[in-house]
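## Example record

The block below lists the input lines for one assembly entry, exactly as stored, with component labels intact.
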Amino acid sequence: MTGTEKVLLTVEGLTKAYPGVVANSNVSFRIMEGEVHSLLGENGAGKSTLVKMIYGLVRPDTGRMTLRGQVYEPSAPKAARAAGVAMVFQHFSLFEALNVAENVALGMENPPKQSELSQRIRQVSEAYGLPLDPARLVGDLSAGERQRVEIIRCLLQDPKLLIMDEPTSVLTPQEVEILFKTLRQLSAEGTAILYISHKLEEIRALCDEATVLRRGKVVDTCQPREKSARELAEMMVGETLTPPERSGKAPGPVALDVSGLSARSPNPFGTALQNIHLTVQRGEILGIAGVAGNGQDELLLALSGEIRTAKDAVKIDGKGVGDLGPNERRAVGLVSAPEERLGHAAAPDMSLTENALLSGAVRKELTSRGFIDWAKTRTFAAGIVKEFDVRTPGIGTAARALSGGNLQKFVIGRELSQDPSVIVVNQPTWGVDAAAAASIRQALIDRASGGAAVVVISQDLDELLEIADRFAALNGGRLSAPRPTQGLTVDEIGLMMGGAHGMEVAHVHP
Amino acid sequence: MDLSAINPLVLIASLMVSATPILLAAIGELVVEKSGVLNLGVEGMMIVGAICGFATAVETGSPLLGFIAAAAGSALLSLIFAVLTQFLLANQVATGLALTLFGLGFSAMLGQGYVGLKPPSTPTLHIPVLSDLPVVGTMLFSHDLMVYVSLALVAAVWATLKYTRVGLILRAVGENHDAAHALGYKVIRIRILAIMFGGACAGLGGAYLSLVRVPQWTEGMTAGAGWIALAIVVFGSWKPWRVLLGAYLFGGISVLQLNLQAAGLKVPVQYLSMSPYLITILVLVIMSANRSRAALSAPASLGRSFHASH
Amino acid sequence: MFILEKRPNPSRFWTGATPVLAVVLTMIAGGLLFAALGKNPFEAIRTIFLDPLIGDNAWYYRAQLLVKAAPLVLIAIGLSLGFRAGIWNIGAEGQYILGAIFGAGVGLWFYPSQHWYIFPLMIIAGGFGGWLWAMIPAILKTRFGTNEILVSLMLVYVAKNLLASMAVGLMRNPEGSGFPGSRDLSAYPSAANLEIFAGTGIHWGVVAAVIAVIASYILLQRHMLGFQIRLTGQAPRAARFAGVKPERLVVFCMGMSGILAGLAGMFEVAGPAGKISIDFASGYGFTAIIVAFLGRLHPIGILLAGLLMALTYVGGDIAQSNIGLPSAAIQAFQGMLLFFLLAVDLLSNYRIRFNLKEAH
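Predicted structure tokens for the full assembly:
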């Protein structure tokens, strides 16, 4: 931090309400020049809405902001950028079919000519240790490289305040280190950073100040370096969390056996799976880490049966199922829950009853000769709602009306209620509040203890370290050899995930 | 059959005339689709343009005013599509079909008093030097203004998409409307303008049919030209020069088929008349057989509704 | 300014009420249109919507209503299956023509012999003709990923040319003194699609339409295949997750709509139209698209929408002869109906809030 201590941004009494939910209520805080300020809160605490108001994407209902003492009311992102506020989005605001330079130009008010811009992209990217080729198509870049495009787009505008929304969720630990060096360099040069995250160790490592949000309100402010991760967690969640319980039973026979699995991605910019080997025993949880876009979706599809492969590439209880579709695999005992809840795991506009039928028809025998037994389906849906504590007005409610956490409990519950022998889930707690996440993790552990083989694909390392018996990582469509979770270091995990992906360490100025 | 009756020189000249209506409609639709909107109402906009242009030209005696009225009329019609799909979030496929069904009926109604009339003729341009060249002069440089307007439009659309900021923003909106919105671009406004541009182009194409190519007014006279324009956008994989190529290929086939009819080929007339449609299908199949390339060149947001929700 | 707010649950009330609202709005806008044509709007609307039901000669028009509604409902039921699954068969008109050609072909083949099985064979041939024509876009879509909208539509123009060539060539009536058009099937007892109850307008096509409505209702509500159709249309990725094979669904939906459109064509050519002629195709295949949407892709809705659309046809004819309303005005009127329907459709999924502050 620089020693000048001038106030850059003040936020006073911001309130924003949406129908049925108050996203932000009377939020106030301030950021000094050159400060790395953290907004801390769990999913749904209102962090995203708050930064969208600062970036001019959402108008507050009441409240005011000042930037360097001037009244600051951005009507659009354009105005925010003109005032020196830039933002790196959680879900990238990039265009896959356009090249790097075009993507950068779209984020600037008055971009120079393409050739000149390409030159500047090279300069800035090298100065901050984030190498980029301006002519490459963004669709062909890795998640980490895409983030670099966003960061460079911001840096070219010489911002006074850089907003970063969950930037490390797409990076390996090594890449996180490099990013932090870049951010510290920027901070030293006088750029303030508003850093949004729910990852406590990162915030302790990086941030000078933290504002904690819970249910749209500021509940605390602190200097994160002086708090423990546990204290921060309790500020954020507002209650004491109990870690999941595990039974120490020895695993049983191999239930899922994948050998030499290769598959092309159904998406034009997807990642092909290359020669994947893994086995999971009954009673065991295999955790699969990896940065987004390294083949997680494809692996789930290839295991669930949406992508078909050679017969013996996937075996369940010794039986080759690689050439079978999802329903045939369900019949053998494999259930799965894809990452995207709305639109993939569940149909948004259909009722919970219909969504229960969606994947439950085979194992729960909800049809006879093709005709649907709606009474039986309703009973099944009601059972899931009850057992997994899904908060919903009723089973006739459309899936899209449920909150993320409740829908995820329903989706996971639907699969776990089918007495499966193999369970494959991708990002089981993504975007879910802490209480729901804890109950989902516990449910997965319980099914493993009950004798199921479980594969958890996740980008949340803490989650995997908490529940997985063995650990592997996807990198560029290849899977590292699984290793026991106990005793793994963060460095080892990072290397399994692909290390720094060819990134250089920032040239930090003395 | 007397194949010698087919003069290649005249064939090429009439090919350009024959291709122009489809080219105009297709280049407009290309811009619409580049912005991420699928407007299946090209046929309806063309036929409304045909009658607007015809009626105005007959009433005022000026083909130029006719073309202007055609562009304005169809742009206005496309505005209905724009409002329904952009503000009211109606399904784009259904709304495009509605536009076509409505346009066919509406144009027939407008055109009741105009059946059997002859429009004022659209003069051919005399370009100094070029028009006087032997062979190529009559083949390429002795057409009416609209033929050159259509070619200029292709060049302009190509240059705009490739080199200008407006073009970049248009492509960005069609590629990922959520990201464009997050960067602060007015997705809906940009799309509405693109839709209206497409409407105006389709209108010009329709008017070219009724004022130059045929030239008279009959109900349903577009006979699928709008749909063929849509197919040509796919054939051209959303690239302006390839759309030009597609339109001229198609124009060539229609002219050749007419010439074969005139030359007395021993095939029933109906089978020759269906050939352009069959060839369009064939072309679509060839283009779509290479799926990965088609997926890469199509705008990623094509046909999806955009509703800013945060 | 107004802003839209997505409803958490689709509104049941508006799902049912939007078609009615759309009809009312179309009547208002249509009235203005007719007034612009110099007609008394009230008289025109009354002539179209009431005269066929309660005017003079209503007994005749009511029968006509069923005759017109039958093909519309048959075709629309088939289309609705595809539309629900996101499969856009726009070429029902072509499938309708092919059904008529195949059906008439069988009838003409047996002429003049009299057998009880000729008419059933014609029904099978009609359905087969429509199915065959629909299989072209279906196979091209599943095999090459070709856009079914454009292919099915192009095939309408091909079918029209085929129809013309049949009328002047292969199927021309040898005793017709050289005029285009086939023998009159409705005057050939073994092949005629006659009224089952005299004076009611109920012919075999009406029976088929009612069966189609009931069967599709059961399919969509109670059968897994119907569930898969709905699921594919609403959430294609979820459908794959549920084990739906998209290719098979395309073939099924296109095939069903082809068969039903072919049947409609066959019943038409053997009954009300009577023969293959150049102007046999009357646009039912396109109007059925409006019927399908107006009926909200629901079998019962389609039944009602088909009757309403038949009313505009019959009433339009009366208006044409009584007050000189051009037939094109009716076509524009039908198109407007679809516009208004799509516009108000929004109310079932979104809430409109008026905002005094400027919305951002």
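Chain A touches chain B through 24 residues (CB under 8 Å). Chain A has two domains: 7-237, 254-496.
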